[in-house]
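Objective 1.3, modelling of assemblies. Example input:
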Amino acid sequence: MTDSGLFDVCVIGAGIAGIVCAKELENQGLKVVILDKSRGVGGRVATRRLHNTQVNHGAPYLEVQGKFTQELIIELLEHQIIQPWPGTMYELDSLGELKLLPTAERYIADEGMTAIPKYMAKGLDIRFSCLVTTVKPTLKQTWQVISTDLVIEAKALIIAIPAPQIVGILEASSIPDLPVDYLNQLRAIQFEPDLTVMAGYSNSFSNLTWQTFKVTAKTDLARISLQSSLIEGSLQTVLVLHSTSALAKTYLDTDYSALRRAGESLLQTATELLSIPLSSPNWLEIQRWRYAFPAVPLGTPYLETTCPLPLICCGDWSGNNLLESALYSGNQAAKKLLDKLN
Ligand SMILES: Cc1cc2nc3c(=O)[nH]c(=O)nc-3n(C[C@H](O)[C@H](O)[C@H](O)COP(=O)(O)OP(=O)(O)OC[C@H]3O[C@@H](n4cnc5c(N)ncnc54)[C@H](O)[C@@H]3O)c2cc1C
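Predicted structure (tokens):
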């Protein structure tokens, strides 16, 4: 299907970076459309509704990482989208010792973390289930953006997705005038994967007092969080376990039954670490994040070119602090494009 209108800007990706960027551009009067391959907004700020509960299986909370997260937190508090999270965070170190980590201000959303991007994206024109496969410059000096569901035409293009996925789109597009160096800078940005295990139990562990463990002990586990502690009156105990990226790398292309076995094995490790019987949950779900965290950031907020037409790539891979970088990158990409168009 082709959308017959001509947009000023097409943004690929309705994660935090894409939303911030699109909002800024629309506030300046531009006609903007966002295409996202999934069925909702937020990307890696993700909440799954399952087994009569909800689980944040991407970013678990919001914390002040810089100016942009600080401003967002103030706005979200004002609109009652988030609340302070009084949870405690421990580190389980290689000696098997439990250390209470310094308290930082952290915030969660009662409705699940996706309440945050949903609030931020209000009013934007977003087309879902549109996996962008190629982008082509046309003779009319516009971009033709081809997705599985829709073809869009726009004067400028913003791509706000993990860098390796941008490379996939640009390589498939074979754009004759695209500078080789531009593509090479994107190719240099690597991502680490993550296996996220979600497990639900009857309420027999309701006396647990911790909320999150950062695991630095030598195991395949990186983090364990007690998600049900975020839900007032939760009728079940829900744990979320994150693997190390080293383990996740060995499961990038396996089928679901292998993933499930990995999940069971991580639960067994957690059982041994915490001395709580976690091996037989009522339910178990696994999420494989192929592109969870940028390994080495770019160091500048975006990558831009006008060759052959205005194109800016942005996302959390631009800087060090993940959500702060996504917000900053989206904002700066919009400002750069506005400069170019004026
Ligand atoms: C398990 C996990 C835990 C995390 N914990 C933290 C934390 O504690 N603190 C923190 O600050 N950050 C954390 N993060 C990282 C944080 O979630 C990300 O930094 C941030 O959400 C990235 O936003 P983004 O907009 O750059 O990219 P994304 O959120 O990845 O958004 C990209 C969007 O593009 C879409 N997309 C991709 N390819 C295409 C395509 N071809 N066509 C159309 N759409 C496409 C995707 O569906 C997605 O919606 C965590 C992430 C994960 C996975």
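The chain has a mean pLDDT of 93.
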